[in-house]
Design goal:
The chain is of the alpha+beta class. The chain has 17 helices and 18 strands. Strands 11-7-6-8-9-10-1-16 form an eight-stranded mixed beta sheet, with helices on both faces. It has a six-stranded mixed beta sheet with strand order 12-18-17-15-13-14, with helices on both faces. A two-stranded antiparallel ribbon has the order 2-3. The radius of gyration is 24 Å and the shape is globular. The chain starts with a helix and ends with a helix. The relative contact order is 0.14.
Amino acid sequence: PKLHQELIQREKTTQTSWLKPFWDAMYLDDRSPIVINTNPFFLLNDHPMYAKACSQVGRATNLISAFLRFYHQLRSKEFKPEFDKDKPLCMSQYANLFGGARIPHLNSDELLHYSDSNHIIIAVAGQFYSFQVIDNLFEIPSRQWKDVKIISEVDLARNLNICIEHGKQQKSFGQQSIPVGVFTTDNRDSWAQNRQELINLHSINAESLNIIDSALFVVCLDEVAPANANQASKVMLHGDGRNRWFDKSLQLIICANGKSGINMEHSGFDGQTVLRFLTDVYLTSIEDSFSSQSLTIGRSEPRPLQWIVSQQLINKISQVGKKIDRMIAKVETEVLEFTDFGRKFILGHSLSPDAFVQMAFQLAYFRVFATTVSTYESVSVKQFAYGRTEVIRSSTKEAVEFTKCFTNSTTSQQEKLESLKLAIQSHTKQLQVRKAARGPERHLFGLKNIALQLQKLHGTSIPEIFNDKSYEIVTSSVMSTSNCGGFALALFGFGPVVENGFGIGYNITNDSISVNLTSNKRRTFVFMMALQWALLTMRAVLENNLSTIKQISKL
């Protein structure tokens, strides 16, 4: 009761929410590398009409212009508010999308936001370039955001080509760029020390870091051309670690064949915010044309950023490069592009599509590993001020009974059907409770953090529940899952959140289900095949198709 009363008191005195400082610390105090472990990715669908979007420069121009138009709407207050049916949603996260950077420090990072940013960063083969894309609002105090102009597509494409050609010239002269961006893949304390060493070495390094930190976003022009979803997933999740700056809130990644997506730094906003952003961006990017407004201050030439590095720093860059290579080699990625059915079929049986797919995850895991594990599904609670997410734990007792029933050859079709419906009902009830922010997990998270603070200040003991093995098991998300998709996205994914876990991002459309699976070599391909089996088996039970079930059981 004392901890709960303290939480209530903090809610009364905070300008945001009692959860926010704990939530920020959860991300910013974590010393693990943010690549793979924290930063998720979103792979966009291809441009449906224009040939220019198939080229790297064409698609990059197309999407950067759409990013800037979204930013212009946001700043000029022309951005339409979000609703969940008739409930307005908190819009605070959108302020963190642009001009944001996570700055490494020893013990805890810092999240910075530059509201006066007017430039972007282009990354080509590990070399960074900067140029202005918005004219300067602050030179004329009387001007309003609605009067601010953005760079034209013609000037934008020209600048991108200059960056690419400069990179090619550097290579032809045998001048390799110094991939300082690889430092952002390292342990946060190590990166903090190396960043400070860069700053101490020369003021040019401090200037280059500030230019990157304060940019609206980073655009990564990659030389690779992924031929399938698996390859594209790996590019968007981590790439080679060199042509990136993972500390930036948004990285727009464009491959040589026009495949494109973003990698996001997670501490300032959640997937549902980025989904709305990318949906608007995608719609804008497939319009016939953009405004031809040019910068009123004239063309802004791309400028390569300079680095002054010692031999010691060069050696450290090489060492960190080897570390990210090992991280990448350790993580398996598999993509299931399931097209046998989707949302329409599931709704046709009066079932929740999301709960249906969640039960497929449970069944697939049970078939491969013969056990049930703690499963995390995030639920947005943006209907509350500064709301982030709550948690559904999908591995309910009904889900366990369902997996046992479906893998038992002696149970009848009717028993299987009833167990499936009960498991889905249980999951759906959880969803309604969590969306209302009435779940236990964030509440317990807050109480635990208050207890730890009081222990540090006064030496008080921590309630036994937080040291109990069962609490550790429940909150260790062996399957971490998130449903984040729409017509703009081809794929969404992230790395496993625990060493022995799976990262599962999925998107349910009317006629398909795409699932991005990652793990640290835990038979990921086998799990993907088991998931396909689970989906087909569950459909067959709904259709009461015995012959189909017999065929599927052989898979």
